[in-house]
Amino acid sequence: MHKIKCFECGSEITDPFLDACPKCGGILTIETDLDAVANLKPKDLREKPLNVWRYAPFLPVKCNVSLLEGGTPLYDCRALSKQLGVKEVYVKYEGANPTGSFKDRGMTVGVSKAIELGCQTVGCASTGNTSASLAAYAAKGGLNCVVLLPSGKVAAGKLAQAMFYGAKVVMVNGNFDDALNVVKSLADERVLYLLNSINPYRPEGQKTLAFEIVDQLNFEVPDRIIIPVGNAANIWAVYKALSEWKALGWIDKMPKLTGIQAEGAAPVAKAFKEGSSDFQPELNPETIATAIRIGNPASGRKALKAIYDTKGYSTTVTDAEILDAQKLLGRKEGVGVEPASAASIAGLVKLRNEGVIDSDERVVCVCTGNVLKDPDTVIKSCGNILNAEPNVTDVKRVIA
Ligand SMILES: *Cc1c(COP(=O)(O)O)cnc(C)c1O
Ligand SMILES: [Zn+2]
Questions:
Q1: What confidence tens digit (pLDDT) does each residue in 135-178 have?
Q2: Dihedral angle computed from the Cα positions of residues 125, 128, 134 and 137, in that order, rounded to the nearest 10 degrees
Q3: Which residues are listed for pyridoxal 5'-phosphate binding in this entry (predicted)?
Q4: Ligand 1 centroid, distance to 300 Cα (angstroms)
């Protein structure tokens, strides 16, 4: 049996509706029952199609709701690797998920759990993608859905998705961290089942992102995985996944987990710079990469453990570096990602220039969300549209 445990004090939690430890307030995590999979072999999994549920033996629920999430491409980015002078660069393209971000991996598991628990209403606070994903999975699962968004700070594509799938969309006059506090209280009052990533089932689904990377590389572990960090559950999920496979002897080393934050929302990167395992919240987080515009990352301490335990790294990138990296990936590799996702590419560029990343490394950048999520930023940052009269001569003139 899988167990719910406090990440901080190790207490076992029996009430599945809690989202924090009743003893110490710590964040929760699932202890995977590795004895139950001790006789399993990678080839047993590989008989199943490549998607989240290939890895069902490592997930703590049975599949009640799925949109066939996961199974996303791992692109071998030769042009990028040549330009940056890094032996191998891969992009794990999470924009190819059903709602266009990796959040779908956590939601298929989280909403399956909600159904198992008999919940009728699910909810979350979100910078956008969590709400888009939850709204879709709630629709598929026949549940009501309430999403709280920071007013005026949600990218158009994400807002459109949450509305489209029929969620009750509530704009709150505050930032993500404020919205999360409200939705936590609603969950305490049992108005809704909380499906933010403090719900320990969400990162369980997100583990499959790392399982797939290793699987797609034929069990040759990359030297480094670079991940954009916002609320910090995803880097933890990647760490947890690979720790489980290492414990089973399926892989023999851990990649250096490298967390990238935007300069204006960087509590984890700042803590890393100081060598600390705890972080100071940023009260006024600001960045163009709205999906990582988070000042008080709920899983920040988990992220720091993931980084230190793997001899990884963390740093910040500026908004300008993010936008440059976004365009670089689009124009060199034909891969379209939203700004937060491009933070991993911007981090690769910066850490290669600083010599932190060696030229002989095999690096995987996780690109978390689709370019269509935030069309306004793209149109602003790419903005030169040519105008012509409707005749051949004039079009030839303007394209010359
Ligand atoms: C949620 C999200 C992130 C941040 O992930 P965390 O688990 O909060 O660190 C990064 N990029 C995109 C596109 C996201 O949707
Ligand atoms: Zn505790």
A1: 999 999 999 999 999 998 899 999 999 999 999 999 999 989 89
A2: 170
A3: 129, 230-234, 368
A4: 13
Compute, in angstroms, the gap from residue 39 CA to the centroid of ligand 1: 34
Q: Is 228 in the pocket of ligand 1 (CB under 6 A)?
A: yes
**pLDDT < 50: residue spans in the chain:** none
Q: Where are the domains of the chain?
A: 1-31, 74-100+201-381, 101-194
Q: What is the dihedral of CA 262, 265, 270, 276, to 10 degrees?
A: -130
Using the mean position of ligand 1's atoms as its centre, give its distance from the Cα of residue 25 in Å: 23
Q: Give 302's DSSP letter.
A: H
Ligand 1 pocket test target in 368, 372, 373 with most atoms within 8 Å of CB: 368
From the list 90, 80, 72, 84, the residue with the least C-alpha distance to 331 is: 80
Q: Is the CB of 232 under 6 A from ligand 1?
A: yes
Report whether residue 292 contacts ligand 1, using a CB cutoff of 6 Å.
yes
Sign of the CA dihedral with 34 first, then 36, 41, and 45 last: negative
Q: Measure the N-to-C terminal CA separation of the chain; round to a whole number of Å.
A: 67
CATH top-level class for 74-100+201-381?
alpha beta
